[in-house]
Structures are given as C-alpha cells and as structure tokens.
Amino acid sequence: MKLIKIFILTLFVAFAGKATAQELKFGHINVQQLVSELPAKKAADAQLQAEATKLQDQLKVMSEDLDSKYSSYLSQRDSLPDLIKATKEKEIQDLDARIKQYNQMAQQTITQKEQQLLQPIIQKVQAAITTVGQEKGLIYIFDISSQVVVYHSDKSIDCAPFVKEKLLAQ
Predict the structure, then answer these.
(1) Residue 165: what pLDDT?
(2) What separation in angstroms does the CA of 140 have from each of 12, 96, 153?
(3) In the Cβ-directed half-sphere of 28, how many Cα atoms lie within 13 Å?
(4) CA-to-CA dists, residue 17 to 140, 153, 156, 158, angstroms
(5) What gap in Å lies between CA 93 and CA 83, rounded to an integer?
(6) Domain span at residue 73?
(7) CB-based burial of residue 141 (10 Å sphere; 0-12 exposed, 13-18 middle, 19+ buried)?
(8) Which ranges of the chain have pLDDT less than 70?
(9) Contact indicator for 80, 88 with CB cutoff of 8 Å
(10) Exposure class string for 76-102: b at 16+ Cβ within 10 A, else e
(11) Percent helix, percent strand, percent coil in the chain, to nearest 5
C-alpha cells in the first residue's frame, strides 16, 4: 500500500511542472459493477448456469448409480463368494474414482467456459474505457472496484456512463 502511495505521489510530482498549462484530468470507474450490469454478462451467466446444470445432472446420475450398486452390494455382501465380493468392491471403487475424476473435469470445464465467455466482454469493456479516456483527455482512469485508489475527489470523472454509452453503441 505504501508503494502505491509513493507511486501516485511520484506521478503527481512528475506531472506538476506540466500541470501549469493544463489541469490534470483523472477518471474512475467500478469495472466489476459495470460488467455485472451488462446484458452480455447476464447472457454469459445464463449460459454458464445451463452448462453447470447439465454437468451437475450427469454427476447426479452417476452418484445415484454408485449408491444403487453400493446398496445392492451391502444387501448381498454376506452371501457372496469372496471372488464376487472382491469384484463388486473393485467395481464400486472404480465408479467412485470415475465420479471424482468427472467432478474435477466438470469444474475445469466450467472455469474454462467462464473464461471463454468473459474474455470478449472484458476486451470490449477495456476498449470502451480506452476510448473514453482518450476522448475525455484523461491521464488515468482508476478502477475503484479493485480497492487500490486511496482517494478520489468530486473532480474525478466517473467514466461509467460514458463507457456504457460506448458499449451500447457497439
């Protein structure tokens, strides 16, 4: 945190000489809030939820199959010969291992799908922020959702309305 304060102070000192002719202009935006309000993000969330539901349904079917086999094994265990008992135990262990592997793969799939869906949204937001910064003549636009900004005054321009306008125009 001290390093950030020192960096910001250094920037102010560095630009102080140049500020005599013009006022330094800064902006701020809450990127997380902006992204969460976008229709594209809501559509991505719905698509991600649908994918997660499919994977969860398959996991439920696999778990029910495991429960059924385990219950059947428990009810017959005492009357089964050792070879059949060992075979059924191995089958149950293998199915349990497959379920665990499927669960891991499903989580990876959801993470990859989320990144795949969010990447174009984030790129569009970044491009819109860059455009707004250039159009408004801003030196920096701080993301206040990252909790890095230690101060922002009323003179700092909230860029969210301008960025939303750019995104809706696309």
Answers:
(1) 86
(2) 12, 53, 14
(3) 14
(4) 17, 21, 20, 26
(5) 15
(6) 22-169
(7) buried
(8) 1-22, 148-155
(9) yes
(10) eeeeeeeeeeeebeeebeebeeeeeee
(11) 80, 5, 15
Q: In terms of Cα–Cα distance, which of 98, 91, 117 is closest to 58?
A: 98
- CB count, 10 Å around CB of 133? 21
Does residue 165 lie within any of the structural domains?
Answer: yes
Residue 13 forms part of a structural domain:
no
* pLDDT recorded at residue 136: 84
CA 136 to chain centre: 29
Name the packing angle between helices 160-169 and 82-136 (round to 10°). 110
For 35, residues 6+ apart whose C-beta sits below 8 A from its C-beta are 41, 121, 122, 125
Strand partners, 27: 141, 157
Instruction: Identify each DSSP E strand in 7-165 by its residue range.
Output: 26-29, 140-143, 157-158
Report the number of distinct structural domains present in the chain.
1
CB neighbour list of residue 36: distance below 8 Å, 6 or more residues apart:
none
pLDDT at res. 124: 92
CA–CA distance, 5 with 85 (Å, rounded to integer): 68
